[in-house]
Amino acid sequence: MSLTLIVVLVIVLALFFDFTNGFHDTANAMATPIATGALRPRPAVALAAVLNLVGAFLSTAVAQTISGGLIKGEGAHIAITPALVLAGLVGAITWNLLTWLWGVPSSSSHALFGGLIGATIVGTWDVGSIDYQVLLGKIVIPAVLSPIVAGLVAYSSTKLAYALTRRSDGRADGRSGFRFGQIFSSSLVALSHGTNDAQKTMGVITLLLISANLQPAGQTGPQWWVILVCAIAIATGTYTGGWRIIRTLGKGLTEVKPAQGFAAEASTAATILASSHLGFALSTTQVASGSVIGSGLGRRDGHVKWGTAGRIALGWLLTLPVAAIVGGVTASIARLGDIGLIADLVIAAVVIIVVFRIDARRRVTAEHMAPRAEAEVASATEALAFARTLTDTAAEGERP
Predict the structure, then answer these.
(1) Cβ-proximal residues to 282 (8 Å cutoff; 6+ apart), any chain
(2) Which terminus of the chain is less hemmed in, N or C, by CB atoms within 10 Å?
(3) Contacts by 367-371 with C-beta closer than 8 Å and gap 24+?
C-alpha cells in the first residue's frame, strides 16, 4: 500500500473521529440550556455547530502539544508512523462510539491520547517513545484538576447567584431571567469547545504529515487546510446532536435550574478557554460534568444523582487505558504490513456499522429532550378533547 494512500485513509479516519467528537461533546455546551428551556434542542445544536466552527480558528496551542510534544522524536524523525496513527485512531473511535451509545459523557480527548499512546508503545516496542513529562503536565494533571476547579467555581457562582437574587422574580423555579444569560454562556462554551477540541484532530493530522515527511518536524503548527477541514468536521458532528449524552448531562446528574445552568456554563467556558491558551489538552466533557455537579451542590434544594456521577467517573478512569489497549492491539495488527492495515480498517468499519445499527433500533432524538413539556401538551390536548365531547353531548341533549 503506497504511503500516499495510507496518509489519505488516516486523514479520512481522523476527520471521522473529529465528527464523533462533535456529536459526542455537544452536551458540554447545550445540555443545561436545553434542560432549563433557555434554548430549544434543534436551534441549540445549530448554534453550537456554528460556534464550534468559529472557535476552531482561534488558537493552535493545543494542536502543537499533540503534534510536537507527546510523541518523542530525534531531529526530522518521529517515533510514530502513519500506520500507527491509524491504529491509534481506531482505538479512539471505538471507545468514543461505545460511550456515546451508552450515554456516558466520557472524554473524546483522552480516548484519542490513549489510542495514540498505546499504538506508539506497541508499534515501536519502546515505552520511552512517549514524553511522559508532557503527558503528566499537559494531559493527566489538567484532567484531574480541571473538573475540580470548574466544580468549585460553579458551586461558588451558584451560591452567589441565589444569594443576590433571593427569588426576586417570584416565579416557582426562581430567577428565570438567567435563561437569557444562558444563551450567552452556553454559546461561550460552544466557542471554547471548538477552540480546544477541534485542535486535537488538527494535531493528529499534523503529526501524521510529520511522520510521513510531508511537513517539517520543527513546524508543529497545523496548516491552513488542516484547520479548515477539522473545523468543518467537528461542526458537522455537533449539528447531528448527540442526544444520548445531552440527556445524561442535562437531566441525569441533577435537576438544572436557570441560575445554576448559567453558573455551570460560565465556569466551563472560563476553565476551557484558560486551558486552551496554556496549551493544556484537557477534557471539555470532564469540565462540563464537574461544573454541573458543582452547580447542583450549590443550590440549597438541589441534589446530585451520585449513581450517575459514579458511572461517569468510571468512564473517565477507563477511557485512556481502554483506548490505549485497543490502540495497542490494532498497532500490533498494523505491524503485519498491508494486510494488517486492511484488517485495522475493517475493524473500524465493523465497529462503526454495528454501533450505528444498534442506535437505529433505540434512537434518542431531540423530541426526547423535553418529556415534561410533551406530557403537558398531551394532557392539555386530552382535556380539550374531553371538553369538546361534553359540549357536543350537551348540545345533542338540548335538541328537540
Answers:
(1) 109, 139, 142, 143, 146, 196, 271, 272, 275
(2) C
(3) 368/243, 368/247, 369/34, 369/35, 369/41, 369/243, 369/246, 369/247, 369/250, 370/34, 370/37, 370/41
Closest CA to 112 of 46, 66, 175: 66
Rounded Cα distance between 190 and 54, Å, is: 9
| Residue whose C-alpha is closest to residue 92's, from 109, 79, 104 | 109
CA 139 – CA 209 distance, rounded (Å): 23
Q: Residue 342 has what pLDDT?
A: 93
Question: 82-102 vs 108-124: helix axis angle to the nearest 10?
Answer: 140
pLDDT along the chain (400 residues), means of 10: 88 93 82 85 90 86 71 63 92 91 83 91 87 85 88 91 67 64 89 84 89 78 91 91 78 80 89 79 83 88 82 87 94 92 94 91 71 40 46 51
SS (H, E, C) 280-301: CCCCHHHHHHHHHHHHHHHCCC
Alpha carbons 252 and 87: distance in angstroms, whole number: 34
Amino acid 366: pLDDT: 67
* CB distance 326 to 90 below 8 Å: yes
Q: At what angle do helices 108-124 and 3-36 cross, to 10 degrees?
A: 160
